[in-house]
Design a protein that fits this description.
37% of the residues lie in helices and 16% in strands. The protein is an alpha/beta fold and 264 residues long. It has one domain: Alpha/Beta hydrolase fold, catalytic domain (Rossmann fold). α3 (71-86) packs across α4 and α4 packs parallel to α7 (178-194). The model has no long low-confidence stretch (mean pLDDT 94).
Length: 264
């Protein structure tokens, strides 16, 4: 139970996996929870990294709690996670999915990490209504998600059961808080403004089959960053949740390939 009296959902608590003297913050996406990056975190930890997966404010509890958070709250959670690993590790990387990718990019632009992995990070969703969220939130505070929890949730549950874990599923909200969507839009604008300051090693992974974040976000990111150590990968089959979808093992290999050559 958190300080607001809301119960943290099963699988949604932050977690730390101790390893060596190189660390990686693995950050989940919008309306999701640390469960979304658990497999990636365990994969990296098995290869010797110390990994921390924060729970972003308002996530993994109740959508009403999330509706009261700002993007600065989420970024402060990212900063806390980086600071925790800085106390333990000589190098710290940030790897994030979706909104977690945005937070990782912002940390990289501020020079707070030694490298960034951004997976399906949204810079432009092509949804102008997000700009109206400060007004819409009063009329329609929450919008149900289409086809939720959907086939991906069952796919995740099947793998969880096969691994002998409780089948928590994706750990995602079934509704979108409109106020939080407005904060996501503000975060996207801030990240785009700051991306020219990003000069640390950078890995960008996007999928052509992602129906949430258009694939042209990759080209947009490339047009803004100034990293000279820059790697990109395009997936063909995965939907938006690259860390849990059908190509997640390929994603993990790409992330480790990138990090493992930059540990020294």
């Amino acid at each position: 139970m958190n300080s607001d009296g809301f119960v943290i959902a099963p699988g949604a608590a932050p977690f730390l996996l101790d390893g060596g003297d190189v660390g990686c913050v693995c950050t989940h996406g919008f309306t999701a929870s640390p469960e979304e990056v658990r497999w990636l975190a365990e994969y990296l930890n098995a290869r010797g990294l110390t990994v921390f997966a924060p729970r972003l404010a308002g996530h993994g509890t109740d959508p009403e709690v999330m509706a009261g958070q700002t993007w600065i709250d989420w970024y402060e959670d990212e900063l806390d996670a980086i600071a925790l690993l800085r106390q333990r590790c000589r190098k710290v990387f940030a790897a994030g999915l979706s909104m977690g990718g945005l937070l990782s990019l912002l940390a990289g632009a501020n020079g707070l990490v030694d490298g960034v992995v951004a997976m399906a990070a949204p810079l432009d969703l092509g949804r102008r209504e997000l700009m109206l969220a400060p007004l819409l939130k009063h009329a329609v505070p929450f919008i149900p998600k289409d086809n939720w929890p959907g086939p991906l949730d069952e796919y995740v549950r099947e793998i969880q059961r096969a691994q002998g874990r409780p089948d928590y599923g994706r750990g995602d909200y079934g509704v979108m808080p409109i106020a939080a969507a407005g904060q996501l839009y503000d975060l996207m604008q801030e990240v785009m403004r700051r991306l020219p300051d990003l000069i640390v090693p950078l890995l960008l992974i996007y999928s052509r089959a992602d129906r949430t974040v258009p694939y042209d976000n990759l080209a947009l990111a490339l047009s803004l960053v100034n990293s000279t150590d820059l790697v990109t990968h395009t997936l063909e089959t995965s939907g938006h949740v690259l860390t849990q979808d059908v190509e997640h093992e390929k994603v993990f290999e790409l992330v480790w390939e990138f990090l493992s050559t930059r540990l020294d």
